């Protein structure tokens, strides 16, 4: 089996990155993380990646006069690394349409809400304010629209009476750490891809279908 090359983009501690690293330790997993990149040189996740022997690269946005210049530098690093898939794991910077176009169908992201609900920041607080009784997370392909790409997989958690934002965040994060490795596995195996802005599934096994029901 040829494992797909994965680059992970982070801005902070990279807890979802760590979950992907753990999944990739299984020799049967169809992907391997070959590099971690961050727009913040002090991102704690860079040291985590290095501790696992993974190349860790800072491309600080503050070093560039414009988003276009920063993305050009990031693209240069990605071109050198030549990933098959790019995983955004807490990468807190919107990407331009030009950047997304270069990697269309190969960038995935995890967002802490049941998209298309609660796009953007502060999703947990907004869920609590809304009175929703369910919440969750979504893995989706990245398009030029923020949090608007086609959905690969979702995980659901209850919103419990008396929940604080911290309690709800922790509950959702536990599911994120399971869902993201599953979604990356399906993408790496070619069982899910994006065509004409839509999700296409092919060759799913009964085990794959059962995994979807675990969230």
Automatic annotation (TrEMBL):
GO terms for cellular component: cytosol. Residues 4-184 form the Formyl transferase N-terminal domain. SUPFAM superfamilies: Formyltransferase (SSF53328). Pfam families: Formyl_trans_N (PF00551). InterPro entries: Formyl_transf_N, Formyl_transf_N_sf, GART, GART_AS. (6R)-10-formyltetrahydrofolate binds at residues 67, 109. GO terms for molecular function: phosphoribosylglycinamide formyltransferase activity. Pathway: Purine metabolism; IMP biosynthesis via de novo pathway; N(2)-formyl-N(1)-(5-phospho-D-ribosyl)glycinamide from N(1)-(5-phospho-D-ribosyl)glycinamide (10-formyl THF route): step 1/1. N(1)-(5-phospho-beta-D-ribosyl)glycinamide binds at residues 14-16. It comes from the Bacteria. The active site is at residue 111. Its EC number is 2.1.2.2. It is an enzyme of class 2 (transferase). GO terms for biological process: 'de novo' IMP biosynthetic process. Gene3D superfamilies: Formyl transferase, N-terminal domain. CDD domains: FMT_core_GART. The record marks 147 as: Raises pKa of active site His. Keywords: Purine biosynthesis, Transferase. It catalyses: N(1)-(5-phospho-beta-D-ribosyl)glycinamide + (6R)-10-formyltetrahydrofolate = N(2)-formyl-N(1)-(5-phospho-beta-D-ribosyl)glycinamide + (6S)-5,6,7,8-tetrahydrofolate + H(+). Catalyzes the transfer of a formyl group from 10-formyltetrahydrofolate to 5-phospho-ribosyl-glycinamide (GAR), producing 5-phospho-ribosyl-N-formylglycinamide (FGAR) and tetrahydrofolate. Belongs to the GART family. PANTHER family: PHOSPHORIBOSYLGLYCINAMIDE FORMYLTRANSFERASE. This is Phosphoribosylglycinamide formyltransferase. The gene is purN.
